[in-house]
Amino acid sequence: MDSRLTKKPSTVILIALISSPSFGATLFTPAMPAIMDDFNISEGASQFSLTIFVIGYALGQLIYGPFAIRFGRKPVIYFGLFIAVIGSLLSALSAPFESYGLLLFGRIVTAFGASVGLVLTYTIINDCYNEQQARRVVPVVSAAFAVIPFLGVAIGGVLVERVAWQSCFYFLFFYYLAVLYCTTFLPETANSLDRSATKISVVIAKYQHALGDSRLLIFSILYGLTTVMVFIFSASAPIVAVNTLGMSAQDYGFLAFLISFSYLSGNLCSAGLSKKFSAMNMIGAGVLIFGPSLVALFGFSVMGYLNIYTFFIPFFCSFFGISLAYTNVIVMASSHYEDRVTGSSLMNFISMSMAVLGVVLIEVIPGPLVVKLPIELFVIVIGYCLLFLYSKRFIR
Q1: Across 195-203, average pLDDT
Q2: Which of 45, 207, 213, 229 could form a disulfide with 41 if both were Cys (CB 3.0 to 4.6 A apart)?
């Protein structure tokens, strides 16, 4: 029987699962200025705590896929979330041990564990829904995938202001325990298991075959470019807001949470219009919104007119467009690919690897963040537009 006709998973649980890595990545971002002060480290070193998380996040995408084919979806989910629980505790303990190295180690352990949420959520969706159905489910799941991390930023801002920065990691410890419990109610969506799936030769052959699929590769890169925009905002915006614009961590968290509603609106709009417009039309609409918004941010920066309004309003507008493109690019990338686990794993690995590159670049390029951030986003917009035009040749 077609696995797409089996019992459907709870959308609420899928939302909790897919949000687990990004929630872990962003909840602590309001704490970055405080971490700089407590450990007496530089701005770049503070950002590295996010960079190393994204590295662990990316590596997990390739590893969990083969194990999900070999052992099933649920056992792999349990393992990953348990690792995230341990990593969060290690991160929290870095404060009493006064060890920034322990914080970094805890972050990469958390990321490696939590990354199971992204790849397995899309795998389960592809197990259970055809392409047209997925265009309605993915925006709903992705909407929460966006809102919950920004909610995390808001929560993190309050925790930093009212308690201490390390409280963010204790919060994550209990959050991952709660998600682990919720996933016990998911159905197992693997139709069959393949004992050879974890053999190195088999894994390499499957990923080589997936890399040969032009549609999967091109749309995975587009997916990656939207992910880069979100992650460099998460890595840089709190430092710009607090250190340059003079905002408190709590105020920044509140504004970031407002931006999440723009992203939520775009996802709900994408879901509602999925029957009327093609995925390519929705991606194009998204480009026409986030492109001019981020170009405007670049213009304000060049003219020296950046303030709270000219910094956050372009992001508020652009995140609506990013969400329109983001959800449809995901469907275009992997829904056609027969090996759903491998396709989803490669798509997410490419996406998160590009996020690593984007965050590293903004760290190593000399100059103040308030200048570097608009420039990097401007370059990404140009690259996205050119690649989107090129991608049309792969759609029949």
Answers
A1: 88
A2: 45
Asked whether 234 and 29 are in contact (CB, 8 A), the reply is yes
Tokens of 64: 């969990």
CA 305 and chain centroid, separation: 30
Q: What dihedral do alpha carbons 186, 189, 193, 199 form, nearest 10°?
A: -80
Q: Phi/psi at 306 (nearest 5 deg)? A: -75, 130
* Range from 14-28, 164-178, 225-239, 366-380 that averages highest in pLDDT: 164-178
Give the tokens for residue 378.
Answer: 């401007």
Q: What is the rounded distance in angstroms from the CA atom of residue 327 to the CA atom of residue 355?
A: 17
What is the reported pTM?
0.76
pLDDT at 377: 93
Query: How many Å apart are CA 51 and CA 78, to the nearest integer?
Result: 25
Beta-carbon contacts of 174 under 8 Å, excluding residues fewer than 6 positions away, are: none
Buried/exposed code over 130-167 (b: 16+ C-beta within 10 A; e: otherwise): eeeebbebbbbbbbbbbbbbbbbbbbbbebbeeeebbb
Quick one: how far is CA 304 from the chain centroid?
A: 31
User: How far from each other are the two terminal CA atoms of the chain, in whole angstroms?
Assistant: 28
Helix (H) or strand (E) holding 67: helix 43-71
Instruction: Report d(CA 273, CA 268) in Å as an integer.
Output: 9
In the structure encoding, which two tokens stand for residue 392, read together? 């049309």
pLDDT single digits (tens) 241-255: 888 888 887 788 788
Mean of the per-residue pLDDT values of the chain:
86
- Which position has the token pair 């587009």? 222
The CA distance from 138 to 141, in Å, is 5
Taking each helix axis from N to C end, the angle separating 32-39 and 214-239, rounded to the nearest 10 degrees, works out to 60
Q: Which residues contact 274 (CB under 8 A, 6 or more apart)?
A: 132, 135, 136, 139, 282
Scan for tokens 């000219």, then name that residue.
310
Q: Please report the pLDDT score of residue 6 as a whole number.
A: 53
The 10s digit of each residue's pLDDT in 53-104 is: 878 888 888 888 889 989 999 999 999 999 999 999 999 999 899 898 999 9
Fold assignment, 8-394: Growth Hormone; Chain: A; (1.20.1250)
